[in-house]
Write a structure and sequence with these properties.
The chain is an alpha/beta fold and 299 residues long. It has a single domain, classed as Alpha-Beta Barrel (TIM Barrel). 44% of the residues lie in helices and 14% in strands. It has 10 helices and 9 strands. The strands form 2 sheets. Strands 1, 2, 3, 8 and 9 form a 5-stranded parallel beta sheet that branches. Helix 2 runs parallel beside helix 9 and helix 8 packs parallel to helix 9. It is globular. The two termini are 32 Å apart.
Length: 299
């Protein structure tokens, strides 16, 4: 038995499940560290030191992402013959333009992720200040890659009440902040569409697996494989497509003890001919095209 309305969109070439893989390249504001902006997190990369103490240990662990981790993860992406979405803070792009330019040149998507990791969208109570943060991030990406981003994900997937409207006004195609669905859908504000590619940050994401749950990369792979198996089974039974996201952070699973799990996730998905491995931008454009076609027929 199928409950609710049928899903109105399909995946290309008869695919039953879409896999969108992402790599986060993050950088905090000058002089800031995760621990100073997420007090009490108790994580292995957070600082318990009080301001204004610098935690050099944490700073260096974050720097690993741009120095080593992002390169190792992108080597896997290249070897496996796929493309992914790079979720990057504007400051991280400014500090590492060559590697981001190369990532983009190889066909990967660059997604806006605020200018700095500690400038989350929900921190902005003033809409115009939030707009300025979005534009600053967009300008950095466009300057480095020559292309404006079409996607946005706020740090930790935390939008403000103005974020979606601002993204539509600034010409974005998709946002990954909302966690109210399992499949992409179209949000309209002022008669203009924005594709929501749902945020599934609590699963198949190296950060909560490693930092919050203190689990090993084996659990990351197990979460992915079990999720994909379930979605393929459900698609066969109901005709409803599925979406699974595999998220990694360059400063975490860019390390040798973690990146094997990212590699194995990709290889597991590639074993299934009915899994579409794509970027979130390509998925959003595919959904938006169907939405617009359906609307044109309805009119």
């Amino acid at each position: 038995m199928i409950f609710g309305e049928p899903y109105p969109y399909s995946l290309p070439n008869g695919a039953k499940v879409a896999l969108v893989s992402s790599i986060a390249l993050e950088m905090w504001s000058q002089g800031s560290t995760p621990g100073k902006n997420m007090p009490g997190s108790g994580s292995i990369i957070s600082s318990d030191m009080t301001l204004p103490t610098r935690d050099i240990r944490v700073e260096k662990m974050i720097e690993f992402g741009a120095k080593v981790g992002i390169k190792r993860l992108l080597e896997i992406v290249d070897r496996e013959g796929i493309t992914c979405t790079l979720i990057a803070n504007g400051r991280a792009i400014e500090e590492n333009p060559e590697i981001v330019r190369e990532i983009h040149a190889r066909g990967n998507e660059i997604c806006g992720h605020s200018y700095a990791q500690d400038a989350s969208s929900y921190d902005f109570t003033d809409a115009e200040a939030e707009r300025a943060n979005i534009r600053k991030t967009v300008d950095v990406i466009e300057k480095v890659t020559g292309e404006r981003p079409i996607g946005w994900e706020s740090p930790r997937g935390t939008p403000s009440e103005n974020t979606m409207r601002l993204l539509i006004e600034e010409g974005f195609t998709w946002c990954g902040d909302y966690a109210d669905d399992e499949l992409p859908y179209v949000l309209e504000i002022g008669g203009k569409p924005l594709v929501i590619v749902p945020y599934s940050g609590l699963a198949v994401n190296d950060y909560p697996v490693t930092i919050n749950q203190r689990n090993t990369p084996r659990i990351y792979f197990e979460e992915f494989s079990k999720t994909l198996d379930l979605l393929l089974e459900e698609a066969a039974l109901t005709g409803r497509p599925g979406l699974v996201r595999a998220a990694t952070h360059a400063h975490l699973y860019g390390r040798s003890w973690g990146r094997w799990a990212f590699r194995d996730v990709i290889r597991y998905a590639k074993r299934h001919s009915d899994v579409w491995i794509t970027t979130r931008g390509e998925l959003a454009k595919h959904i938006l095209a169907q939405y617009q076609e359906q609307n044109s027929k309805g009119n």
